[in-house]
Amino acid sequence: MARRRHDGALTALLEFAGTLPPLAGLALAAGSYFLLHWWADVPPTALPADLRPANVVASAVLKGLLLGAQYVFPAIFLMGALASAIKRALRRAREVRSAMAPVAPQEAQPDRGPRNEHDIYRIWTGDWEDAPGPSRRVDTSAWNLELLRALEWKRFEELCAAYFRLLGFRTLLAKPGPDGGVDIHLIAEGDAKPGVLVQCKAWSTYDVGVKCIRELLGVMAAEQVREGVFVTTGRFTQPARDFAGGKEIMLIDGPDLLRKIDALADDQRSSLLALATAGDFTRPTCPSCGVKMVRRIAKASGDPFWGCENFPGCRTTLRIAAEAMA
Protein backbone atom coordinates (compact mmCIF):
# COMPACT_ATOMS: atom_id res chain seq x y z
CA MET A 1 0.00 0.00 0.00
CA ALA A 2 2.85 2.37 0.84
CA ARG A 3 4.49 1.73 -2.55
CA ARG A 4 1.15 2.44 -4.28
CA ARG A 5 0.83 5.75 -2.46
CA HIS A 6 4.44 6.55 -3.36
CA ASP A 7 3.86 5.78 -7.06
CA GLY A 8 0.62 7.77 -7.00
CA ALA A 9 2.39 10.80 -5.56
CA LEU A 10 5.09 10.66 -8.25
CA THR A 11 2.44 10.27 -10.97
CA ALA A 12 0.50 13.24 -9.60
CA LEU A 13 3.71 15.29 -9.54
CA LEU A 14 4.45 14.32 -13.15
CA GLU A 15 0.92 15.29 -14.22
CA PHE A 16 1.27 18.61 -12.41
CA ALA A 17 4.61 19.27 -14.13
CA GLY A 18 2.94 18.56 -17.49
CA THR A 19 0.44 21.38 -16.91
CA LEU A 20 3.17 23.98 -16.38
CA PRO A 21 4.74 26.05 -19.17
CA PRO A 22 7.88 24.31 -20.48
CA LEU A 23 10.18 27.04 -19.18
CA ALA A 24 8.65 26.74 -15.70
CA GLY A 25 9.28 22.98 -15.75
CA LEU A 26 12.91 23.54 -16.74
CA ALA A 27 13.34 26.12 -13.96
CA LEU A 28 11.89 23.71 -11.36
CA ALA A 29 14.13 20.90 -12.62
CA ALA A 30 17.24 23.02 -12.22
CA GLY A 31 16.14 24.48 -8.88
CA SER A 32 15.22 21.12 -7.35
CA TYR A 33 18.50 19.55 -8.44
CA PHE A 34 20.71 22.25 -6.93
CA LEU A 35 18.67 22.41 -3.70
CA LEU A 36 18.55 18.63 -3.16
CA HIS A 37 22.17 18.21 -4.24
CA TRP A 38 23.26 20.80 -1.66
CA TRP A 39 21.17 19.16 1.05
CA ALA A 40 22.50 15.70 0.18
CA ASP A 41 26.09 16.97 0.58
CA VAL A 42 25.51 18.05 4.20
CA PRO A 43 27.55 15.65 6.45
CA PRO A 44 25.30 13.20 8.31
CA THR A 45 26.75 14.12 11.70
CA ALA A 46 25.78 17.74 11.19
CA LEU A 47 22.10 16.97 10.82
CA PRO A 48 21.10 15.51 14.23
CA ALA A 49 21.16 17.49 17.44
CA ASP A 50 23.49 14.95 19.04
CA LEU A 51 25.39 11.83 18.05
CA ARG A 52 23.06 9.23 19.51
CA PRO A 53 22.93 6.07 17.33
CA ALA A 54 19.25 6.54 16.43
CA ASN A 55 19.86 10.06 15.16
CA VAL A 56 22.93 9.01 13.20
CA VAL A 57 20.93 6.22 11.50
CA ALA A 58 18.06 8.60 10.69
CA SER A 59 20.54 11.09 9.25
CA ALA A 60 22.10 8.41 7.06
CA VAL A 61 18.67 7.27 5.78
CA LEU A 62 17.71 10.86 4.99
CA LYS A 63 20.98 11.36 3.14
CA GLY A 64 20.28 8.25 1.06
CA LEU A 65 16.83 9.52 0.16
CA LEU A 66 18.24 12.90 -0.80
CA LEU A 67 20.91 11.29 -2.98
CA GLY A 68 18.15 9.61 -4.98
CA ALA A 69 15.73 12.56 -4.89
CA GLN A 70 18.30 14.94 -6.38
CA TYR A 71 17.93 12.99 -9.63
CA VAL A 72 14.31 11.79 -9.41
CA PHE A 73 12.61 15.16 -8.95
CA PRO A 74 14.57 17.00 -11.67
CA ALA A 75 13.84 14.09 -14.03
CA ILE A 76 10.11 14.38 -13.28
CA PHE A 77 10.12 18.12 -13.97
CA LEU A 78 12.11 17.61 -17.17
CA MET A 79 9.63 14.98 -18.40
CA GLY A 80 6.78 17.32 -17.48
CA ALA A 81 8.38 20.16 -19.44
CA LEU A 82 8.82 17.88 -22.46
CA ALA A 83 5.21 16.69 -22.23
CA SER A 84 3.98 20.28 -21.93
CA ALA A 85 6.02 21.34 -24.97
CA ILE A 86 4.63 18.42 -27.02
CA LYS A 87 1.03 19.22 -26.02
CA ARG A 88 1.47 22.88 -26.93
CA ALA A 89 3.01 21.97 -30.30
CA LEU A 90 0.14 19.59 -31.07
CA ARG A 91 -2.40 22.25 -30.09
CA ARG A 92 -0.73 24.81 -32.36
CA ALA A 93 -0.71 22.27 -35.20
CA ARG A 94 -4.46 21.68 -34.73
CA GLU A 95 -5.09 25.44 -34.77
CA VAL A 96 -3.08 25.82 -37.99
CA ARG A 97 -4.96 22.93 -39.64
CA SER A 98 -8.25 24.45 -38.54
CA ALA A 99 -7.29 27.88 -39.91
CA MET A 100 -6.18 26.35 -43.22
CA ALA A 101 -9.29 24.21 -43.68
CA PRO A 102 -11.41 25.07 -46.74
CA VAL A 103 -14.53 27.12 -46.12
CA ALA A 104 -17.63 27.76 -48.16
CA PRO A 105 -17.33 30.49 -50.81
CA GLN A 106 -17.81 33.81 -49.08
CA GLU A 107 -19.62 35.56 -51.92
CA ALA A 108 -22.29 32.85 -52.01
CA GLN A 109 -23.43 33.93 -48.55
CA PRO A 110 -25.57 36.99 -47.79
CA ASP A 111 -23.54 40.03 -46.81
CA ARG A 112 -23.75 40.48 -43.04
CA GLY A 113 -21.37 43.40 -42.82
CA PRO A 114 -17.66 43.61 -42.06
CA ARG A 115 -16.04 40.47 -40.73
CA ASN A 116 -13.07 42.20 -39.14
CA GLU A 117 -10.34 44.76 -39.76
CA HIS A 118 -9.55 45.28 -43.48
CA ASP A 119 -11.99 42.47 -44.50
CA ILE A 120 -9.41 39.88 -43.42
CA TYR A 121 -10.72 36.30 -43.37
CA ARG A 122 -9.10 32.90 -43.46
CA ILE A 123 -9.61 30.79 -46.58
CA TRP A 124 -6.05 29.53 -46.85
CA THR A 125 -6.00 25.82 -47.71
CA GLY A 126 -2.30 25.38 -48.27
CA ASP A 127 -3.22 24.28 -51.81
CA TRP A 128 -3.39 27.30 -54.10
CA GLU A 129 -2.13 28.58 -57.41
CA ASP A 130 -1.25 32.07 -58.61
CA ALA A 131 -3.81 33.70 -60.88
CA PRO A 132 -3.71 36.86 -62.97
CA GLY A 133 -5.44 39.88 -61.51
CA PRO A 134 -8.95 40.71 -62.70
CA SER A 135 -9.30 43.09 -65.60
CA ARG A 136 -10.86 46.27 -64.22
CA ARG A 137 -10.98 49.45 -66.27
CA VAL A 138 -11.41 52.62 -64.24
CA ASP A 139 -11.56 56.16 -65.55
CA THR A 140 -8.54 57.92 -64.05
CA SER A 141 -8.83 61.14 -66.02
CA ALA A 142 -10.89 62.83 -63.30
CA TRP A 143 -12.27 62.15 -59.86
CA ASN A 144 -15.35 59.92 -59.84
CA LEU A 145 -17.04 57.56 -57.39
CA GLU A 146 -15.97 54.41 -59.25
CA LEU A 147 -12.33 55.49 -59.05
CA LEU A 148 -12.63 56.27 -55.36
CA ARG A 149 -14.12 52.87 -54.63
CA ALA A 150 -11.48 51.11 -56.74
CA LEU A 151 -8.67 52.33 -54.46
CA GLU A 152 -7.12 49.65 -52.31
CA TRP A 153 -7.39 50.27 -48.57
CA LYS A 154 -3.82 51.55 -48.05
CA ARG A 155 -3.97 53.95 -51.00
CA PHE A 156 -7.27 55.25 -49.66
CA GLU A 157 -5.65 55.99 -46.28
CA GLU A 158 -2.79 57.79 -48.07
CA LEU A 159 -5.33 59.83 -50.06
CA CYS A 160 -7.14 60.85 -46.86
CA ALA A 161 -3.85 61.82 -45.19
CA ALA A 162 -2.88 63.92 -48.24
CA TYR A 163 -6.28 65.65 -48.21
CA PHE A 164 -5.91 66.64 -44.56
CA ARG A 165 -2.38 67.89 -45.20
CA LEU A 166 -3.83 70.22 -47.82
CA LEU A 167 -6.09 71.54 -45.07
CA GLY A 168 -3.03 72.46 -42.99
CA PHE A 169 -2.66 69.46 -40.68
CA ARG A 170 0.42 67.38 -39.96
CA THR A 171 -0.49 63.70 -40.35
CA LEU A 172 0.77 60.55 -38.66
CA LEU A 173 -0.22 57.37 -40.51
CA ALA A 174 -0.53 54.08 -38.64
CA LYS A 175 2.18 51.52 -39.40
CA PRO A 176 1.37 48.07 -40.87
CA GLY A 177 -0.32 45.80 -38.36
CA PRO A 178 -3.22 46.44 -35.96
CA ASP A 179 -3.97 50.16 -36.01
CA GLY A 180 -5.73 50.29 -32.64
CA GLY A 181 -8.89 51.74 -34.19
CA VAL A 182 -7.21 54.81 -35.71
CA ASP A 183 -5.51 55.16 -39.10
CA ILE A 184 -4.41 58.81 -39.03
CA HIS A 185 -3.54 61.28 -36.25
CA LEU A 186 -4.03 64.93 -37.22
CA ILE A 187 -1.88 67.60 -35.58
CA ALA A 188 -2.91 71.22 -36.08
CA GLU A 189 -0.31 73.90 -36.76
CA GLY A 190 1.30 75.02 -33.52
CA ASP A 191 0.12 71.96 -31.55
CA ALA A 192 2.49 69.39 -30.09
CA LYS A 193 0.10 66.42 -30.05
CA PRO A 194 -2.80 65.12 -32.17
CA GLY A 195 -6.11 66.92 -31.80
CA VAL A 196 -8.14 64.81 -34.27
CA LEU A 197 -8.28 61.06 -34.86
CA VAL A 198 -9.22 59.69 -38.28
CA GLN A 199 -10.45 56.22 -39.17
CA CYS A 200 -10.61 55.21 -42.85
CA LYS A 201 -12.60 52.32 -44.35
CA ALA A 202 -12.38 51.46 -48.05
CA TRP A 203 -15.69 49.62 -47.94
CA SER A 204 -17.99 49.61 -50.94
CA THR A 205 -19.96 46.37 -50.54
CA TYR A 206 -21.61 47.31 -47.24
CA ASP A 207 -22.30 50.36 -45.12
CA VAL A 208 -20.36 51.42 -42.04
CA GLY A 209 -22.44 50.66 -38.97
CA VAL A 210 -22.72 52.15 -35.52
CA LYS A 211 -20.27 49.64 -34.02
CA CYS A 212 -17.37 51.22 -35.94
CA ILE A 213 -18.35 54.70 -34.74
CA ARG A 214 -18.51 53.51 -31.13
CA GLU A 215 -15.02 52.03 -31.48
CA LEU A 216 -13.66 55.36 -32.75
CA LEU A 217 -15.32 57.17 -29.85
CA GLY A 218 -13.71 54.71 -27.44
CA VAL A 219 -10.25 55.38 -28.86
CA MET A 220 -10.89 59.14 -28.65
CA ALA A 221 -11.73 58.78 -24.98
CA ALA A 222 -8.70 56.56 -24.32
CA GLU A 223 -6.32 59.01 -26.03
CA GLN A 224 -8.15 62.06 -24.59
CA VAL A 225 -8.80 63.54 -28.05
CA ARG A 226 -12.00 65.57 -28.45
CA GLU A 227 -12.55 65.31 -32.22
CA GLY A 228 -12.77 62.39 -34.62
CA VAL A 229 -13.35 61.87 -38.33
CA PHE A 230 -14.60 58.69 -40.01
CA VAL A 231 -14.05 58.47 -43.78
CA THR A 232 -15.35 55.70 -46.04
CA THR A 233 -15.62 55.09 -49.76
CA GLY A 234 -19.11 53.71 -49.14
CA ARG A 235 -21.89 55.02 -46.92
CA PHE A 236 -22.98 55.04 -43.28
CA THR A 237 -26.06 53.41 -41.83
CA GLN A 238 -28.68 55.71 -40.33
CA PRO A 239 -28.02 54.42 -36.78
CA ALA A 240 -24.34 55.30 -37.28
CA ARG A 241 -25.27 58.83 -38.35
CA ASP A 242 -27.67 59.19 -35.42
CA PHE A 243 -25.02 58.06 -32.95
CA ALA A 244 -22.36 60.41 -34.34
CA GLY A 245 -24.81 63.31 -34.41
CA GLY A 246 -24.40 64.09 -30.73
CA LYS A 247 -20.65 63.50 -30.67
CA GLU A 248 -17.62 65.40 -31.93
CA ILE A 249 -17.31 62.95 -34.83
CA MET A 250 -17.55 63.99 -38.49
CA LEU A 251 -18.75 61.34 -40.94
CA ILE A 252 -17.51 61.59 -44.54
CA ASP A 253 -18.88 59.06 -47.02
CA GLY A 254 -17.73 58.51 -50.60
CA PRO A 255 -19.93 61.12 -52.33
CA ASP A 256 -19.17 63.67 -49.60
CA LEU A 257 -15.41 63.10 -49.96
CA LEU A 258 -15.69 63.67 -53.72
CA ARG A 259 -17.50 66.97 -53.10
CA LYS A 260 -14.76 68.04 -50.70
CA ILE A 261 -12.05 67.15 -53.23
CA ASP A 262 -13.92 69.00 -55.99
CA ALA A 263 -13.99 72.10 -53.79
CA LEU A 264 -10.18 72.24 -53.70
CA ALA A 265 -8.07 74.34 -56.03
CA ASP A 266 -7.30 72.78 -59.42
CA ASP A 267 -3.66 72.06 -58.62
CA GLN A 268 -4.55 70.47 -55.27
CA ARG A 269 -7.23 68.33 -56.87
CA SER A 270 -4.78 67.23 -59.57
CA SER A 271 -2.09 66.37 -57.02
CA LEU A 272 -4.52 64.11 -55.12
CA LEU A 273 -5.54 62.42 -58.37
CA ALA A 274 -1.90 61.77 -59.28
CA LEU A 275 -1.20 60.33 -55.82
CA ALA A 276 -4.28 58.11 -55.87
CA THR A 277 -3.70 56.63 -59.35
CA ALA A 278 0.09 56.18 -59.27
CA GLY A 279 1.23 52.62 -59.92
CA ASP A 280 -1.02 49.69 -59.07
CA PHE A 281 -3.66 51.43 -56.97
CA THR A 282 -6.21 48.59 -56.97
CA ARG A 283 -4.03 45.70 -55.79
CA PRO A 284 -4.28 45.59 -51.98
CA THR A 285 -1.44 45.98 -49.52
CA CYS A 286 -0.90 43.34 -46.86
CA PRO A 287 -2.19 44.81 -43.57
CA SER A 288 0.39 42.83 -41.59
CA CYS A 289 3.66 43.58 -43.40
CA GLY A 290 2.90 46.39 -45.87
CA VAL A 291 3.81 44.66 -49.16
CA LYS A 292 1.57 44.24 -52.20
CA MET A 293 -0.51 41.08 -52.27
CA VAL A 294 -0.88 38.42 -54.98
CA ARG A 295 -4.16 37.15 -56.40
CA ARG A 296 -4.47 33.41 -55.90
CA ILE A 297 -7.00 30.62 -56.34
CA ALA A 298 -7.71 27.99 -53.69
CA LYS A 299 -7.65 24.71 -55.62
CA ALA A 300 -9.91 22.93 -53.17
CA SER A 301 -12.80 25.40 -53.44
CA GLY A 302 -11.96 27.50 -56.50
CA ASP A 303 -12.30 30.69 -54.48
CA PRO A 304 -10.07 33.61 -55.46
CA PHE A 305 -8.36 35.55 -52.70
CA TRP A 306 -5.48 37.94 -52.08
CA GLY A 307 -2.48 36.33 -50.41
CA CYS A 308 0.62 37.98 -49.00
CA GLU A 309 3.80 37.84 -51.09
CA ASN A 310 5.69 36.87 -47.93
CA PHE A 311 3.86 33.54 -47.55
CA PRO A 312 4.55 31.30 -45.65
CA GLY A 313 6.09 33.85 -43.31
CA CYS A 314 2.84 35.83 -43.45
CA ARG A 315 -0.49 34.04 -43.91
CA THR A 316 -2.71 37.12 -44.09
CA THR A 317 -5.44 36.90 -46.74
CA LEU A 318 -8.02 39.36 -48.03
CA ARG A 319 -11.42 38.70 -49.51
CA ILE A 320 -11.95 39.61 -53.16
CA ALA A 321 -15.21 41.51 -53.52
CA ALA A 322 -17.76 40.29 -56.06
CA GLU A 323 -17.46 43.38 -58.25
CA ALA A 324 -13.70 42.92 -58.45
CA MET A 325 -14.18 39.43 -59.85
CA ALA A 326 -16.66 40.52 -62.50
Please tell me about this protein's structure.
The protein is an alpha+beta fold and 326 residues long. It has ten helices and nine strands. The strands form two sheets. A five-stranded mixed β-sheet has the order 2-3-4-5-6, with helices on both faces.
What distinguishing features does this structure have?
326 residues, alpha+beta, five-stranded mixed β-sheet, four-stranded antiparallel β-sheet, 10 helices
**What are the secondary-structure elements, in order, as H or E?**
HHHEHHEEEHEHEHHEEEH
Q: Main β-sheet: number of strands, strand sense, barrel status?
A: 5 strands, mixed
Q: Termini separation (Å)? A: 76 Å
Overall pLDDT level: 76
Strand content: 5-15%
Judged by helices, strands and strand pairing, the structural class is alpha+beta
How many DSSP-defined strands?
9
Computed Rg:
31 Å
Give, in spatial order, the strands making up the sheet with the most strands: 2-3-4-5-6
Q: Helix segment count?
A: 10
- Describe the global form: elongated
Q: pLDDT under 50 segments (min length 5)?
A: 95-135
Oligomeric description of these chains: single chain
Helix content: 40-55%
